[in-house]
Amino acid sequence: MSTITFREEYTKQHINNDKKNIIKESIIDGTLGLSFVYMDKKDDKVHRIFVKENKDDSTFELKEEKNGKEDTKTLSMAEFTKLIKEPYLKFVADYMKERKPAKGDKNTSKGGAKKRSKKASKKSSKKASKSGSISGGAKKRSKKASKKSSKKASKKRSKKSSMSGGAKKSSKKASKKRSKKSSKKASKKRSKKSSMSGGAKKRSKKASKKGSKKASKKRSKKGTK
Q1: Which residues of the chain have pLDDT under 50?
Q2: Dihedrals φ, ψ of 117, to 5°?
Q3: Which of 27, 82, 194, 214 is most deeply buried (CB count within 10 A of its CB)?
Q4: pLDDT of residue 195
Q5: Percent of the chain at pLDDT exceeding 90
Q6: What is the pLDDT of residue 65?
Q7: What is the largest CA-CA distance in the chain?
Q8: Helix (H, G, I), strand (E, B) or coil at 137
């Protein structure tokens, strides 16, 4: 059972010097396909075009009457597109730009499937780009973290080296102080010993002088007796 989704008819009649000019435009679209009629009648001269779509093979049947002659053709989609570019068929071209697919239309469903596949591919590409940006952000964060950790490690090493250098300096200072103290003590001891030995020599000299004086006195006393 056919269903009509769009129907439009337009008729224009113009009379000039008792001469009639009739223009008729009609479009019908539905589940059985598109069909349109164009007629331009000036007195006895008639130009009439009738086109009907065949959905089975996506072709169009054209019947044209002009100057008393009739012609029938089967048009492809490319030929149909070329035909509706004629100025007098502008109403068909305008409708085809805004045409909506009818329900149950196989050809339009294929087009819809293609559109959906394009949308799905766009979504997947967006997701892939997002995941790539996320991974790139993770890499950047890891780089920042590694830089921070390396900076911290270098700071710790510098602190340790400075502390070890300070310890070495303090140990050097302590050793120098100890060596100075020990050298001072040793020199004092040596000076004391030398002074003590000098005093002993002086005392021995005094004792020897006293002994010699006493001996001379005794010898002098014996000589007088």
Answers
A1: 108-113, 200, 224-225
A2: -65, -40
A3: 27
A4: 53
A5: 34
A6: 95
A7: 209
A8: helix
- Where do we find the tokens 């070329």? 82
Q: Which amino acid is at 16?
A: N
Residue-level pLDDT at 16: 82
**Three-state DSSP class for residue 92:** helix
Burial class (CB in 10 A: 0-12, 13-18, 19+), 64: middle
The per-residue pLDDT for 2 is 75
CA distances for 29 relative to 64, 105, 196, 206, angstroms: 20, 12, 140, 155
User: If we measure between CA atoms, which residue out of 66, 201, 214 comes closest to residue 193?
Assistant: 201
Which letter, b or e, does each residue of 194-215 get, where b requires 16 or more Cβ atoms within 10 Å of its Cβ?
A: eeeeeeeeeeeeeeeeeeeeee
d(Cα 115, Cα 121) in Å, to the nearest integer? 10
Q: Which helix (H) or strand (E) holds 84?
A: none
Q: Which residues contact 48 (CB under 8 A, 6 or more apart)?
A: 37, 38, 39, 40, 64, 65, 66
In this structure, are residues 110 and 61 in contact, taking their beta carbons and an 8 Å threshold?
no
Distance CA 6, CA 1 (A): 16
Token pair for residue 182?
């020990």
Residue 68 is predicted with a pLDDT of: 86
74 contact partners, CB below 8 Å, separation of at least 6: 59, 60, 61, 62
Length of the chain: 225
Query: Which residue carries 């010097």 as its tokens?
Result: 17
